[in-house]
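Dear support,

I submitted the protein below through the web form. The confirmation email said the job was done, but the results page showed an empty box. After a refresh the structure appeared. I'm attaching both so you can tell me whether what I see now is the final result or a partial one.
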Amino acid sequence: MRGTVWAVANQLGVVAGTPAELLSALLAGPPRTVRLGGTGHDAAEVAELADVLREFGHVRVVVEGPDDQAPARKPGDDEPVDTADAEAVCAADPVRVTAAYESADDECGGLRGAWLRAGQSLIRDQDPARRALVLQTALPPDADPRVRQALARSAAAAPWYMERALPGPVAALAVLPGGALVVADPGGGVRVLPDGVRQQSTATRVKAAAVLEQDTVLLLDERGRLHRHGGTGTALTKAVVATLARHPGTALAAAADVVLVGDRMGSVHAFGSGGLHQAALHSGRVTALAATASPSLAVRTGGTDGAVRAWSPAGSGHGSTVSQRPSPVVALHTGPTPEGPALAVAWADGLAELHRPGRRDVLTFRPGPAIRAVAVTAEGALCVGTEETLIRLRPR
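What the results page shows now:
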């Protein structure tokens, strides 16, 4: 069943691992048509999922038969997949691998758990090296070292090198001026890596984090209220706290002496010593913000309209479009690297992008689970946070 759910979720641009999660994602959006079936999918699983989706009447379900234009099967396609062989599962048909792991009891050195955790990414059409990279990031801490080594060999041709994957939920990420990574978890705790101890900051669920000064981290909770972690309260932070108590925010960023907040109407508000600057930049809710202060304040904004825009509070107008996809933006971060400022973007369909200065090619990564936060380190690495893991990737 997982393989069918993942395939439909990819078709619809959402992240879901179970029929209930898929239905929840569909009910949150407008009525639409869902196409199920096709070559490689179990007919009984397709019929079961169709019944679940039709029950609520919010979607139109079309069940398709096998694809007559599907490529001819090759010798060996019907042979059992060796689920304990890391290199073999990366090269095999992902639908068959998923079915094999669903029916298996052996954890195969950690491969089974990793595949079922990251399967929505793995089931996409891609080369074995990318699958190996995704499996690397999803392995449990107690995975067999031989499995790790085999995946590292297979992932050598991927565009990323996995530096580390730390277990634990991530709600928001930020980077201190010195380069240390700030990790906020859903429970309101904050850690400064690599060696920081978790400190409880707020009792409410964290939605976004931003660094205002060397020792001041600002947190936006799920109710749109602002909290300060560390540092000393200033007239600026007190003014923003008071404003968001009356008008909740939906996104947060900070740079130099400016705090930026997004709202549900698509506007961005920049609070600073020079006054308040604001602009209507998106159609729908502002979902993510990022900012850098050097050489001048530069802001990146993201929204439910799928647009990433560049904006300067000192300028005017609606900014310029940096990127546009048919999926809401869920997280942004921009920061200095040895080559210049880089931009990380995360989308609601599970895709992370790294836009590097002076490069037209955009590096992408899909961990499988939904992405909650992204950050660019001072060395140019990409950090990706999910509800299960913090992943650090370095471009090759």
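Response: this is the final, complete result; the empty box was a page-load delay. The two ends are 36 Å apart (CA to CA).
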